[in-house]
Design goal:
By secondary structure, the protein is mostly helical. 44% of the residues lie in helices and 0% in strands.
Amino acid sequence: MAKQIYLNGMTADRLSEMIRESLQDELQQIRPSHPKTDTRHLT
């Protein structure tokens, strides 16, 4: 059974902001918190 969500009284800007925030949260969980830093330098 599919979930139904009703967006009553929400502006398009607010919906867009909520989607953006959710995506940022999900991407932060996927990406490592600290990027690998290689301190070796090639000469």
